[in-house]
Amino acid sequence: MSTETTKTSLTATPAQTIGPFYGFALPFEKGGELVPPGSPDSVALHGTVLDGHGDPIPDALLEIWQADAKGNVVAETGSLVRDGRTFTGWGRVAVGNTGKYVFTTVNPGPTEPGKAPFIAVTVLARGLLNRLFTRVYLPEDTEALANDPVLSVLEPDRRKTLIAERLADGSLHWDIRLQGEDETVFLDFHGQP
Description:
By secondary structure, the protein is mainly β. The protein is built from 3 helices and 9 strands. It has a single domain, classed as Aromatic compound dioxygenase (Protocatechuate 3,4-Dioxygenase, subunit A, Sandwich), CATH 2.60.130.10.
């Protein structure tokens, strides 16, 4: 076979498959329930994952990590088995067909006096070769928000993409925009894949 024939008969393949292939294995029962819904001090964190055109992304996967209500970083084991009593500070949900997600959790406390409470978020979705890291902040303590080392280096219009809206029912509404107008600020941790 000549070199010319070989070049024309081979089809290029992608360098890395995109997926997502995690939908059948990574979500688990009650993954979004860091505390049972309706339990004392529970709060819903909910929103929609959107693409650059503002359309919902139906196949994203979100993970959150957070301190407990007193600001303690929890080191409990058993995150994949929800017993209804142990707060592990970690959850994982797949978004629905409409791009919507919900976690039932508690309002995190500040990990240090004067620090702004936040929830760390990881996003995995189609078209993303690497996961995205971001944060969602509670809106109430404006002084702590103004002094937060991450928020303070952002322009005000970019800063607002990381601050949830507290709704009348006490829940936190926060949309994640992967691109476009009001794109969520994503964080870069050097040396992380």
